[in-house]
């Protein structure tokens, strides 16, 4: 089992995510995919289409985490400013990439579509960046150092991530087990804290559910060590049995 | 028409949002509600249940924006650390609030439920904080200076926001109109950029849609001035008519 820890952050870019016009789908997808791959997503920032905000977010995060993934702002319209912003973040020129122009030009020609100036915008990237290919869109994403720049359209974001992820370094996968608990957090809180203290080789999360009338709880035990998870789950189940027995006694009285 | 500009940021707190276990629902809801109210959401950060990360996010954002809203981490279990983290961010003690203890104690007594130590945790807040009431949960959220701390359970987050929002200062509402465009961004990109340049009293956003085969675009024109929006929409419609006529001529030839 690899014990290496690989971390990541995401910057989701787009005014539409902050105005409520669009519900983001890429954050949850990236979180799922990274967790499965053994990359720990530590922070997400959503920023608008403003260069200074993108630069600040990317520069803060790329120094703290193994990888930074961005979504959005690499299309052909005037509000797509991510390529410029990432170039500014790294202090390198934003240029038309010859290889991208060639690939895209050939595809548009084959489709009898005009390779407009707008479409050519999608070939711009920071000098020295490498392509992120995908099987959906003609235009590539790009990687510069540890920053991976992908599209905002979910189908394209997912296709780019599918291509990229097997090429990245990954670490020990964090496994998890879920215990569905019929009691609210107020009932289990003290017992669960004790169990967390006794099982410090796991991280125990407690997620309240409210159906409009009563509370229940989903307890999630996470660890890189599956045996440690099993030990904590045993302790949680024992606690839940005790609570059940105590409630039964109370009713009989 | 109020010309005041009121801004906001959000910090969504919880390991479960970063592991992919839970799909956040509060960000999109807050974005919708703030936009309608005339508060401009400028940035969102998602962080895990780690005090240093919460403190860093809240302190960075509360100085930049009129308001900061947080979700998550104010429940009764050991992984609910938001009250401590916010207290640390402001450098004040985190204490049991007398009024909260009194209100919550009375409710639990009426329900014949034990006021456990875990439940009492939900009465802790930074010294000097004011309550955010709600019609769903017994435990209050709280406000300290310009930071509003709310629950992560969506039904409770929404109820707290319903109570809070009418009590906040709001600014000029940003209105918007949507133009559904049957062409992809590569076709309209250049024309749209010209229109944006001619209509700098609006912000024109362009959102590609991809149905697995063809692209279309949703064009969104935003402004505090509804007449400015109408002028830009007219120009966009004229451009789309021109493209349509050009395509028809091409087909006939």
From TrEMBL, chains A, B:
| Listed InterPro entries | CinA, FLAD1_M, MoaB/Mog-like_dom_sf, MoaB/Mog_dom
Highest rank taxon of the organism: Bacteria
- Signal sequence bounds: none
Q: SUPFAM superfamilies recorded for this chain?
A: Molybdenum cofactor biosynthesis proteins
Q: Which CDD domains does the entry mention?
A: cinA
What are the residue boundaries of the MoaB/Mog domain, all occurrences included? Answer: 9-172
Put simply, this protein is called Competence/damage-inducible protein A
UniProt source species: Hoeflea poritis
Lineage at the top is: Bacteria, Pseudomonadati, Pseudomonadota, Alphaproteobacteria, Hyphomicrobiales
């Amino acid at each position: 089992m690899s014990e290496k820890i690989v971390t990541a952050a995401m910057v989701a870019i787009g005014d539409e995510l902050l105005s409520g016009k669009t519900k983001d789908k890429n954050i949850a997808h990236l979180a799922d995919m990274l967790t499965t791959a053994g990359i720990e997503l530590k922070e997400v920032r959503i920023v608008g289409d403003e260069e200074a905000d993108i630069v600040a977010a990317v520069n803060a995060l790329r120094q703290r985490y193994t990888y930074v993934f961005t979504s959005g702002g690499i299309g052909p319209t005037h509000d797509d400013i991510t390529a410029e912003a990432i170039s500014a973040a790294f202090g390198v020129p934003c240029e038309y990439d010859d290889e991208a122009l060639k690939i895209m030009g050939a595809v548009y020609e084959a489709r009898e579509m005009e390779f407009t100036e707008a479409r050519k915008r999608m070939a711009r990237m920071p000098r020295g960046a490498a392509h992120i290919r995908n099987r959906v869109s003609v235009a590539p994403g790009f990687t510069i150092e540890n920053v991976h720049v992908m599209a905002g359209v979910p189908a394209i974001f997912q296709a780019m991530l599918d291509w990229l992820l097997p090429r990245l370094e990954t670490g020990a996968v964090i496994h998890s087990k879920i215990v569905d608990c019929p009691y609210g957090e107020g009932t289990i809180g003290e017992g669960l804290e004790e169990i967390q203290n006794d099982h410090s080789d796991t991280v125990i999360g407690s997620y309240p559910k409210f159906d409009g009338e009563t509370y229940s709880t989903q307890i999630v035990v996470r660890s890189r060590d599956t045996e440690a998870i099993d030990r904590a789950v045993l302790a949680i189940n024992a606690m839940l049995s005790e609570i059940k027995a105590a409630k039964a006694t109370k009713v009989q009285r």
